[in-house]
Amino acid sequence: MTEPELLVTVASHVATLTINRPAKRNALSWALVTEIRQALAEAKANRDVRVVVLTGAGEKAFCTGADLAGMADGASYADLHDARGELARLFAELYALGKPTIARVRGYCLAGGFGLALACDLVVAADDAQFGTPEIDVGLWPHLITVPLTRSMPPKVALELMMTGRRVDATEALRVGFVNQVVPMEGPGGLDDAVATLAATLAAKSPVALKLGRDSFYGAWDLGAEDALRYLHPLLTVTASTEDAAEGIAAFQEKRTPRWAADN
Predict the structure, then answer these.
(1) Global pTM value
(2) Structural domains for the chain
(3) pLDDT of 18-44, one tens digit each?
(4) Is 135 a catalytic residue?
């Protein structure tokens, strides 16, 4: 039997979505993008899931973007245009997930795969990771990933990468700021340990506070200062009124670990 192109596991409140096309360096087909969207919807609805980790199978790549060899087969112009929108819908759904997301990156992270990683909240990269937007070299432009790139680094750096197609190693990625951690590939303190530790840290926080806070972060992103403050003010009152806020304050005063409502 053919192996599934997306592997999904849930353990310790963490859903791990693994793009499983290592022979194609985890390139994306339209069907696979749709499958990732469906898996995210299930993770969003699953109360046991508090964190989502997105990664790629094998040792060569997180994801190298679109599978250019197969994405246009048999599709009409209109169907192809609509299918390209799947990636935009995936980015929007990642932002609206309501739960923290972590990209676990090793090897190549290119084109749409680069955008996919940066559409996650946090990026943990192995020291062999390489990032880039090579579309310009085949006469294309990475239109859709403009949003996650310019939200993750200075806009002129994103423009330079898109215009030149040059590769960025993990060290530069950390310096520019679109990667949160760079760790060894293997061993103690390596990629798997770092991702597991970060996911466990996030899973231990108040799910309600994380959802409200994360939603407000993305909601205020593109607003001017006055509009953002006007938007955020009532959300502070909403968050302060939750059971988890009351429990968190009580636990702090009593010097104990809080017991969140979702844990009861």
Answers:
(1) 0.95
(2) 6-203 (3.90.226.10), 207-263 (1.10.12.10)
(3) 999 999 999 999 899 999 999 999 999
(4) yes
